[in-house]
Structures are given as C-alpha cells and as structure tokens.
Amino acid sequence: MTGSAHHPDAPHIPVLLRPLLRAVAPVTGTWLDGTFGAGGYAKGLLEAGADKVIGIDRDPLALEMAQGWAGEYAEKLQIHQGNFADLDEIAGEMLDGIVLDLGVSSMQLDLAERGFSFMKDGPLDMRMSQDGPTAADLVNGMAEGDLADILYLYGEERASRRIARAIVKARAIEPITTTLRLTEIVEGCLPRPKPGQSHPATRSFQALRIAVNDEYGALAEGLMAAERALKPGGALAVVTFHSVEDRMVKRFFQHRSGGMGRANRYAPQAEEDAPRFTLASRKATGPDADELDVNPRSRSALLRVGRRTEAPAGTIERKALGMPVFQGKLP
C-alpha cells in the first residue's frame, strides 16, 4: 500500500507483493483484498491467475480513484466501501484467498487535507472512512490520562505522559486543529532524532490514527472473519508495519494452528482445539534488498501467511491476541 498514489497515473508499489504471491501460489478462484487502496494487490492477484477479486476499502477516495481503471477487469474486479472486519458478510461467498495490508495508504499520507502526515500541514483529521470523530476531537476533548494511555498503548510512546501534559497545556490556550501544530507540540517534548531515527511525532500520530479508526479492533474482527470466509486450503496473507499489529497476527496464527499448546495436556483434545490454519513458516517474511531500494517505506513490513484447514471456524478472545485494550473514554 505504499508508493505515491494520489494521482491515477502515479506509481503504486504494493509492499511484499512478490513474496506474497510466491507464498500463496497457485492463485486461482475468488480472492478478497480487504485493504484495496490504489489496487496494487488486487491487480497483482488478477495477473497471477485469480478469476475474481473482491476489493474492500473504508476510504471512499479509493473507490473514486479506481473508477479510472477498474473497468479494464470488467466483472473480474468488484469493489465495495466497507471495513474488512465485515469481510465475510461483504464477500457473501467462500473465498480461495484473502490479503490484508495494514499500512496506512500513501494516497492518505500524500494528501495533506486528510491529516495523516506530520510532514505536511493539514486539518488534524485521520479518518479513513471520512466519518466519525477526528484526531482533533481526541486531542482537544480527551482527559489528560486517557490521552497519555492512547499514546502509550497504541503508539508505544514512552514519553506519553509528558506529551499528553503538553497537549492539554497548549489546547487550554487555543484548540489544536492542524497536523503541524500537533507535530510542533510533540517535538517540543522529545530530543532531536539522531540520523536514521524516525521522526519524533511518528509514534503519537500512529497512536491517534489507530484510535480514530479502531484499527486493532478491526484487525481482531477481520482475522476471525477471514477464518469464517476461507475455503479449506484457502490462504490468508497479512502484511503488517509495526510490532503490535505483527504480534496480533502472529498470535492469531499460533492459536489457530495449534502452536500455543493445550492448557492441560492431560485433558482430551476438544473440538475447539482443532487447528484452523497450517503455517508454511512460523517466521515472518521481510523485504529483500531489491525491494528496499525501490520502496524504502517497506523497511518495517512483515508478511505472515496461513492456510485454512477443514476444521469449523471458531472465535478467539481479543486478549489472546495481545491486543492493547484502552480502558478510558473516547469523545
């Protein structure tokens, strides 16, 4: 989902596409791309042999942009606005494969007015679906302790309390409504980065974006929806971009492939313990040197792939996935 994608003719480079297609080969039947973006994975799947791809994206802009080229694929490509948490209902049929790319799309980062980027000035928005509370609503409306918890839980920001205090102090003077104003406040709380380190505002912006879009909740629901929607032998491929997402996907596959072991080894194996997925590898795949050259944004990407067994779908508790749980109140 990276590359420059705010113009229909701009290059769009889907992260880890080649290793993903290798891992899920052969690509046949009906696939679902739950994070459609600029359509890079969907095109890759169709070109690799999929008979049909169902694309889902929360962002109405993704659907608008696709109108320029989707017609080339006729009925082989169907695109829906929606959340991949509901992918089984949206698909309405059993699937041969599902792809989820959890990175924020470059068309969102590149458009300053969407408010995702700490590098460009725009309204502090960050809503993927363009509805509901904005990042500005959170920053100006949350209690200091809740704001600190969001920054720590969702952004792994160690200076969360200091940043929350600075935000509350600044908003008392005037509301924080733009991305660069928030960036300035966060930068004032942290040391200047050394060469090669990420921008000081990276973790805070990530945390707010995840909270605004309930990304972890959608991921937990989406993984369970994928288990329900895949045919036996169907592949689930997930590309993550930071440690919390990768931990959730890794634990999901561990639990669902029998890799966590039974709580009591003397108890008979329950139906619930039957593996739902098999894993070709317990290790994640990262980008190779060629991909890093072409697409520097892929540096933190990790791919995990599982294949559905014949065991009936079940449910898994969110806490079993190591999902950070925010106990406070969102505005």
Automatic annotation (TrEMBL):
<dbReference type="InterPro" id="IPR023397">
    <property type="entry name" value="SAM-dep_MeTrfase_MraW_recog"/>
</dbReference>
<comment type="similarity">
    <text>Belongs to the methyltransferase superfamily. RsmH family.</text>
</comment>
<keyword id="KW-0963">Cytoplasm</keyword>
<protein>
    <recommendedName>
        <fullName>Ribosomal RNA small subunit methyltransferase H</fullName>
        <ecNumber>2.1.1.199</ecNumber>
    </recommendedName>
</protein>
<feature type="binding site">
    <location>
        <position position="101"/>
    </location>
    <ligand>
        <name>S-adenosyl-L-methionine</name>
    </ligand>
</feature>
<keyword id="KW-0949">S-adenosyl-L-methionine</keyword>
<dbReference type="GO" id="GO:0070475">
    <property type="term" value="P:rRNA base methylation"/>
</dbReference>
<dbReference type="Pfam" id="PF01795">
    <property type="entry name" value="Methyltransf_5"/>
</dbReference>
<feature type="binding site">
    <location>
        <position position="84"/>
    </location>
    <ligand>
        <name>S-adenosyl-L-methionine</name>
    </ligand>
</feature>
<dbReference type="InterPro" id="IPR029063">
    <property type="entry name" value="SAM-dependent_MTases_sf"/>
</dbReference>
<keyword id="KW-0808">Transferase</keyword>
<feature type="binding site">
    <location>
        <position position="57"/>
    </location>
    <ligand>
        <name>S-adenosyl-L-methionine</name>
    </ligand>
</feature>
<feature type="binding site">
    <location>
        <begin position="39"/>
        <end position="41"/>
    </location>
    <ligand>
        <name>S-adenosyl-L-methionine</name>
    </ligand>
</feature>
<feature type="binding site">
    <location>
        <position position="108"/>
    </location>
    <ligand>
        <name>S-adenosyl-L-methionine</name>
    </ligand>
</feature>
<comment type="function">
    <text>Specifically methylates the N4 position of cytidine in position 1402 (C1402) of 16S rRNA.</text>
</comment>
<dbReference type="InterPro" id="IPR002903">
    <property type="entry name" value="RsmH"/>
</dbReference>
<dbReference type="GO" id="GO:0071424">
    <property type="term" value="F:rRNA (cytosine-N4-)-methyltransferase activity"/>
</dbReference>
<dbReference type="GO" id="GO:0005737">
    <property type="term" value="C:cytoplasm"/>
</dbReference>
<keyword id="KW-0489">Methyltransferase</keyword>
<keyword id="KW-0698">rRNA processing</keyword>
